[in-house]
Amino acid sequence: MAEINYGPSTIMKNRFPEIKKLGACSPNGEMTPFVWNGRLMRMELFDPLNGTDSTILRYAVIRDVESGKIISSLAEDSYFHSAYVEDGKAYVLGVDMKERGTIRIYESCDLKEWTNSPLLSNPGWVYYNTSLTKGPDGYVLLMEASEPKEYVGDYPFTLFFATSPDMKNWTFMDYDLGFSKERYMGGPWMKYSQGWYYVISVTELPCKHYTNYIYRTKDFKDWYVGYYNPILMPSNEDRIISPKASDLGKELIEQIKYSGFIINNSDIDMCDYNGKTYINYACGNQLGFYYMAEAEYDGSVADFLKSYFE
Q1: Apex 300 CA angle, 302 and 284, nearest 5
Q2: Which terminus, N or C, of the chain has the lesser number of Cβ atoms within 10 Å?
Q3: Whole-structure pTM over 0.85, yes or no?
Q4: 276-301 residue pLDDT tens
């Protein structure tokens, strides 16, 4: 497996992609935005104590972004949720917190009533965040793992993959294709676009700061590193409160504006909406203080992803 980075002959013909930060939008955890019947929705992780207590009830919610209304709640038996939408059906994936090698899938045709079942199981593994996409040969599932160490390597998180023709029968890719075993790879997002599989993943910078890097591959063997990394870095714009914010209490707003220590722009997810790329990302200190923010890129998701390599 090769990682292909810039070299002495690399030429930057374009400027860094311009992302406009819109402000804090939710107190909840990792999100997946998506469009449903023309309306912008978000699947949000609901964790009242922000990851500091695993004994309390944690689940996912579906929110209408424009109205701020929560449509439904689901997935109380799993965590690290992500969402995928295809042909009028919504899917939410989550890791079973009792069997960490099992990923569950929740399905709905109306965002209100949900069925659930195991998607796949890999005993002995410990999974975290996932992301699902569809390419020309079927579905590809990305899984962030911390164990077993013999495959994960020396860093706490490595990305592994499985494929399926029908979202029911899954085949794990060779574990030696885990990416990348040379550094921290967390909070991943994946999308197939214009012949490439793009992956955005959190990387740990020196002194415990976190941001996102983008990569792409055609065969999961050779990985190209985006020329314009990192995608986002913490800034004063992260202290803006979005006009479309929902459920941000007064105390949290004061913390975001004035006292909260912000060392990450991480866990990016995105979708196409109204001709632009709508982006959600996490801010906070990785120690119990966090919130989600929104941003936008003036162009499609396909153009946004490609802009980091051309």
Answers
A1: 90
A2: C
A3: yes
A4: 999 999 999 989 899 999 999 999 99
